[in-house]
UniProtKB/TrEMBL annotation, chain A:
SUPFAM superfamilies: Cytochrome c oxidase subunit III-like (SSF81452). InterPro entries: Cyt_c/ubiquinol_Oxase_su3, Cyt_c_oxidase-like_su3, Cyt_c_oxidase_su3-like_sf, Cyt_c_oxidase_su3_a-hlx, Ubiquinol_oxase_su3_dom. Residues 27-204 form the Heme-copper oxidase subunit III family profile domain. GO terms for cellular component: plasma membrane. The keyword Transmembrane helix applies. Keywords: Cell membrane, Membrane, Oxidoreductase, Transmembrane, Transmembrane helix. The keyword Membrane applies. PANTHER family: CYTOCHROME C OXIDASE SUBUNIT 3, CYTOCHROME C OXIDASE SUBUNIT III. It is found in: Cell membrane. Gene3D superfamilies: Cytochrome c oxidase, subunit III, four-helix bundle. This is Cytochrome c oxidase polypeptide III. Belongs to the cytochrome c oxidase subunit 3 family. It is a multi-pass membrane protein.
TrEMBL record, chain B:
It comes from Paenibacillus pasadenensis. It is a multi-pass membrane protein. NCBIfam families: CtaD_CoxA (TIGR02891). The keyword Chaperone does not apply. This is Cytochrome c oxidase subunit 1.
Amino acid sequence: MSAHSHLDGQLPHEPERATLEGRNKVLGFWLFLGGETVLFGTLFSAFLALRDQVGDGNPTSQELFKLSLVAIATVLLLTSSLTSVFAIQAMHRNQVKSMQLWLIVTVVLGLGFLGLEIYEFFHYVHEGHKFSTSAFSSSFYTLVGFHGAHVLFGIVWISLLIGQVYRKGLTVVTAPKVYVAGMYWHFIDVVWVFIFTVVYLMGKVG
Amino acid sequence: MAHAHPVKRYTGLMDWLTTVDHKKIGILYLIAGGFFFLIGGLEALLIRVQLWKPLNDFVGADTYNELLTMHGTTMIFLAAMPVIFAMMNAIVPLQIGARDVAFPFLNALGFWTFLFGGLLLNLSWIAQAVPDAGWTSYLPLASPTYSTHKGVDYYVLGLQIAGIGTLIGGINFLVTIINMRAPGMSFMRMPMFTWTVFITSALILFAFPALTVGLVALMFDRLFSANFFEVSGGGNTVLWEHIFWIFGHPEVYILILPAFGIISEVISTFSRKRLFGYSSMVFATVLIGFLGFMVWAHHMFTVGLGPVANALFSIATMLIAVPTGIKIFNWIFTMWGGSIKFTAANLFAVGFVPTFVMGGVTGVMLAAAPADFQYHDSYFVVAHFHYVIVGGLVLGLFAGLHYWWPKMFGRMLNEGLAKLTFWTFFIGFHLTFFVQHFLGLLGMPRRVWTYLDGLGFNTMNLISTIGAFLMGVGTILFIINIIVTAAKPKTAGDDPWEDGRTLEWSIPSPAPEYNFAQTPLVRGYDALWKEKMDGNDAMTPAEPIGPIHMPSPSILPFLMSLGLFIAGYGFMYAENEWTGIMHDLFASHAVAGAGLLITLGCMVVRSLKDDHGFHIEPDEITGKGVKA
């Protein structure tokens, strides 16, 4: 359990798995994402069950959704997933500066996504699609909003990690944190792929 | 190598508030779970007093609904689950030869969120806004239209906060069992209790997030006028039933599997025989866990899902009887030809077997969808689930507590008192619930606060009430036993039953802070028994004696849970009839925000501040350790 034998020089090849604490953290986080999958799965089920319950006179998904805006948001988030991979690759090469740079790019792209989503929500509310309008609107805002809240949490988390690595450097303690934050970021990206398909594309077509 | 980081170590109350030691957390779970067990038991007794004669007016209909709801909710979420977590914490790391759980800090966080969630739920009694829509909180009864006071808000937020703790605990034990086993402890050498905890943790991981979503949706409906279950807005009340039971059915296996594990350990130890059919036991446990997710709609046969759905869920439910039957036969074959010692722990375990079979048989009866239309919402169902939960889980927990008490506290419970506990509780249990099968078949509906004279219900309800009080006497005897035992010196040896088979009996009672001075080398199933049979006094160590790294205590888990507790109140009372500053603070969501800020702030502190822990040096590693 010598997690804290401080670095005398070279960082191990996979610093996130170098200690038992690191391995526990990575495995625990995989399992946590398993639970998150059930969480979003249930939210998707609720949305699918209620998405046709629009109510009289309220805007339908066909009228509301502007795919161009959502497509831009999708590109931003997918790209941020790629840049987070670059960050982890840089970590494995022990290039701290490059890792931090890619993490900053990831955060900026995430902020761009979040900005578009907030704009989108304001626009919908303006169109009369409020949280309490119908079962469709409630389940829509809950599903997409849960995802948005996850993005916001990820942005704050990764920003704090950037600062932490800046202060403490890349060690066997900080590396697992960066690694699981990367896993988290991929997960919310995958969830978005499903939201884009199930909510927006199917909402526009079906 | 082991340079000393100064670590503040607390004593007294602060020690308990900051501990990250799984054995102490186990004791905390036991105390808190036991406390809620007494509250839930008291509610049960009040229910039985109300029902002892026809047209009784001991409590009103409204109070009865509250008692009924809080009894179910408290017993499932705040009594049964925490006592299971107490056993998991106290025993699993010892059984796999680990010094600690994978995430000691999260372990403490799990306990404190459970406790604050449970307190929030029960403070509804003081606020005089008690949940009264049943423990399943079906819609539209629990909707803002039909449940206008804040009772269901307490239910939603209390369970939400407590549920976080359960989920954290599940992940923690999965990682602990996968990553922290001693050398040689392969999966198929793990003790049966550890196996069942492993599967239960997996069920927790995949079942609780569904409840989280259900509670969030109900909360949004109630607090922010969402329309998930609001039919006028296009919502769907059956959706709640699906979500609730997709969580709720695995939940009953979350409860019973650890009891299966405890029974396996106790029967094997006191029969002085290897557990019969170990691999089939493991297989049956995994299969029950898997099938547990496939059967949720058998709670909804009368909803009208159609014959195809009902038939499929009916067959899937009956399938579960197969692995469960395998277990029953394995326990009987373990006892067969063994030199059985009827200690109190073993009495509970042996009493479990026929009792649980009865609960299982009525389970198969209920699984037949056409017949279920007759049983549905009658006392037959009440009898069934009390046979599996009290006759199954609670007898299992009693067996485990009597069996592991010396390992947790260093003292043996008084055998005479313990046997008296068993007989009063066991007879009381059957008196209470056996007659309820027939009440149900006669047509007495569950959840109704009284009944008319002349329906043939009178005598059996009286018997049931007498039985409930006998169970109360059994519980009081158990508490007396605890008090009597606590006054005695700590004299329990490493292996006080002398027939211990698993690793927890190879170390002192109670276990020292670091559990194992040297990590043991496991050479087979029933690791300690194998060494005994090979003529060895102790386990073979897998490492030389050296300094042992320990995590530092921390107050953050307590504060994070306190933050959630405050936030829960903040959200609940954002709409209130108060005046002045209190109204403004709550109405502006300032209180809710402050609570969340405390929790998130603590998370940031935890992330930024490295926990270096401390080392216990070899010369400190002597005989007895942790104070209980």
